[in-house]
Amino acid sequence: MKLYNSKFEKISTISTFILIPLSGLVTDVYIPSFPEMQSVFQTSAAGIQLTLSCFLISYGITMFVAGSVVDSFGRYRIILGALLLFALSNFSIAYVHNLYFLYAIRVLQGILTALIVVAKRAFLVDIYTGEKLKHYMGLLSVVWSLGPITAPFLGGYLQSYWGWTSNFIFLGVYALFSFTLEYIFCGEAMRQAQAFRMPTIIASYRKVLGTKEFSLGLFVLAASYSMVLIFGMTAPFIIEEQFHLSSVVTGYCALISGLGLFVGGMLAKQLTSRPLLMKLRIANFSECMIALLMFFVGTLFTNLYVLMLFVFSMHVCAGFMYNVYFTFCLTRFPQNAGISSGITSGGSYLITSVLSYSTISLVKVSSQSTLAICYFAMAVVTFSLLQVLKKIRMSGVD
């Protein structure tokens, strides 16, 4: 088997960061094509939206087990095999127009994407240590945020010029390009394989999840990212129904939302060396104050510019907190890098799904003020979690 060569460190790191936004690209790039796909597959809007759910559910579940797989069988061969299958699956979607086949392929793509993302995150832990590892781990969520930011706009242009199949052809070509980089410049970098024995694997999961700071972090990550999801799910109703603006404006607002996440992640990266709890508490206090101000301003007057100023500010705070704790979780167990990566992403994603959908089902979001209520609720949840974290750190219990 081909082993990693440190002389290709830079290009193999670049290859890793090319693949990190893959999950965002797979979910968002074809959203502008939903209407045409609905017509082609002769189904309802819900029938096409289900393709997104198929991917997200399989992705989240696979993230839980992907870590033990890549820790036991290595990163390199799994990445190559998954990329090749992923490319072929996208080309098959473009040329086999059957709805149930599409559902099945999207489930497969969720599994493959989870394996790729977990393996590449673990790869960074394999080749870097110390401050350099923290530096690159801090970049992970920043680079990941580029997927949701750019994908809808890229997909819109692809749809406009070449139709819905071009989105999947693009994903297939993207995967083949990454496969080529991985095959030529990367190799197996795992220091020591973990035996694939169920008792050992279960013990590793118990060790990771049994660490209170880590398991608590899953809920902090979920509360932070729920803010972004809540806005994404409610923005069309606020912007198009309250302000009577077009879906194009909604797209630009999604871009501003994503940029807030990106700026927050970059800010967190610059403050990597600062104490964990101090950074989190300052960001959480800012969230509470912004949400309260957003609510009271919304009761007096509101327009799109005011709304997006508050949304951008809130998402900077959320992106900052997400990046800080995400980096902590991924570097907490270098000997179980795959498992900790999988649990961090899969666990926080599943909690996020429950938290965000529960919140918008309880609060009918139709204005700036009601959106502020949701933001404040997430900030309060985070505040409570940080109080627990403070007690854990003061007691010295891990």
From TrEMBL:
The chain crosses the membrane at residues 12-31, 43-66, 78-97, 103-124, 136-158, 164-185, 216-239, 245-268, 280-298, 304-325, 337-357, 369-389. It is found in: Membrane. Keywords: Membrane, Transmembrane, Transmembrane helix, Transport. The keyword Magnesium does not apply. It comes from the Bacteria. It is a multi-pass membrane protein. InterPro entries: MFS, MFS_dom, MFS_trans_sf. Coiled coil: none annotated. Its main location: membrane. Residues 12-393 form the Major facilitator superfamily (MFS) profile domain. PANTHER family: MAJOR FACILITATOR SUPERFAMILY, POLYAMINE TRANSPORTER 2-RELATED. This is MFS transporter. It comes from Olivibacter oleidegradans.
